[in-house]
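Annotated sample (chain length 253).
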Amino acid sequence: MGRNLVIACCETDDMELTQALEQDQSPSLGMDSGLLAGLAPNKVLISDHLDASSYDVLIDFTHPSATTHHVDFCLKHGKKMVVGTTGCDAELEQKMHTAGQEIAIVYAPNMSVGVNLCFKLLQTAAAVLGDSVDIEIIEAHHRHKVDSPSGTALKMGQVVAETLGRKLDDCAVYGREGQTGARERNTIGFETIRAGDIVGEHTVLFAAEGERIEITHKASSRMTFAHGAIRACRWLEQQEKGIFSMQEVLEIA
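Output written by the structure step:
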């Protein structure tokens, strides 16, 4: 994602890349970020620390532990954020909501325009189908992804559950094994696949007797997430403070 974000920033006329970050002890430290991304040299060397003087918006696709530090840093220095980190727990999400009282943050488990359109479609499907269907969410990612289910799958489940008046924590079922008995209608099932170099695939299955509806999104390139992040950066120019979703950025909330 880092390389794709560098490409997206460098290829956008009204954006300037001023910093590129990696974790400490990364072999990429000190390298030219343009060269590393397969572009011409841009003289932005990869570093392991932020410099508050040279940027307006921080795009954060990292790890919850790094995002926690970055939220504190941006809050201290009055900088805006676009956060695409997944696996954030309730404590970190609350930290971002609190920070949103002073700075502007777009936080989304998936920056893809298509995925966020799917969220809207899921609301419609759940509202129409109600409790007459069984609902399953199947997601697949590359073998190196560390969190499961994906943040996008959980967001899809949350959208469906809230539309149906349920709490996802109460109705989610994560995988099945052994003699589980008949399926309960009011549950939302999750199945996870980790294999090869799959960028990201999500399907929400609404299954009734005699028919089923599937809403699917498949990402074939991480550039789709990078382009969404750039779109969020542009939108944040008009926001002084608050925490926002990609659906608000796309005006489909």
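Annotation: The chain is about 35% helix and 20% strand.
Annotation: The two ends are 26 Å apart (CA to CA).
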